Amino acid sequence: GQQVMQIPQYQHVQEGEDFTTYCNSSTTLSNIQWYKQRPGGHPVFLIQLVKSGEVKKQKRLTFQFGEAKKNSSLHITATQTTDVGTYFCAGRDSNYQLIWGAGTKLIIKP
Amino acid sequence: DSGVTQTPKHLITATGQRVTLRCSPRSGDLSVYWYQQSLDQGLQFLIHYYNGEERAKGNILERFSAQQFPDLHSELNLSSLELGDSALYFCASSVAIRRGDRGADTQYFGPGTRLTVL
Hints:
The complex is a heterodimer.
Chain A: E1 4-7, E2 10-14, E3 19-25, E4 31-37, E5 44-49, E6 55-58, E7 61-65, E8 71-76, E9 85-92, E10 98-100, E11 104-109
Chain B: E1 5-7, E2 10-13, E3 19-24, E4 31-37, E5 44-50, E6 53-57, E7 64-68, E8 74-78, E9 87-94, E10 108-109, E11 113-117
Parallel strand pairs in B: 2-11
Antiparallel strand pairs in B: 1-3, 3-8, 4-5, 4-9, 5-6, 7-8, 9-10, 9-11
């Protein structure tokens, strides 16, 4: 079946460093959503990207959707302790089903 | 608070037993999704219901079943439980998602039910 590959699985950064997670699909997606799950919490919707080449910003977070609508990325500038958690992408396939990436866990080194 | 409620919050049971997890979606949401999340793992999609009808199945075991009732709440039934079924089970709801519906389809997650099988 269709898969959305998300890398890396973990990323350790010093506070203040940048963080990026990438998602790749084998087929074209209708849209892609991003969610954040804090430790001990539940996933919370961050944003949805729909258009080819779309870029959206939320403060220090930048989301991109590739031109071919097969890949996406989330970049966090100057990480803070509040950014800790797991970031999931979820792409909507041609059957309009949501296909989830495995998540990237952001860990801030003490 | 997402507006999605799940009960119970915690459940401890023994192998071979059967349990029922309950989910109440946000007011007005017709779609309910169930997910399983094992320790430090990703979200495994189990099943999707829309207005009482099953719409999609993911990696749901035959020992598991679900239904959505006329009042739109949903129940996930897990039977013949095994140690490996220990996990966090999330329910999520969205406004309405049907083929051809291109509106916003954000999923709102409940707090989850943590199931421990001993």
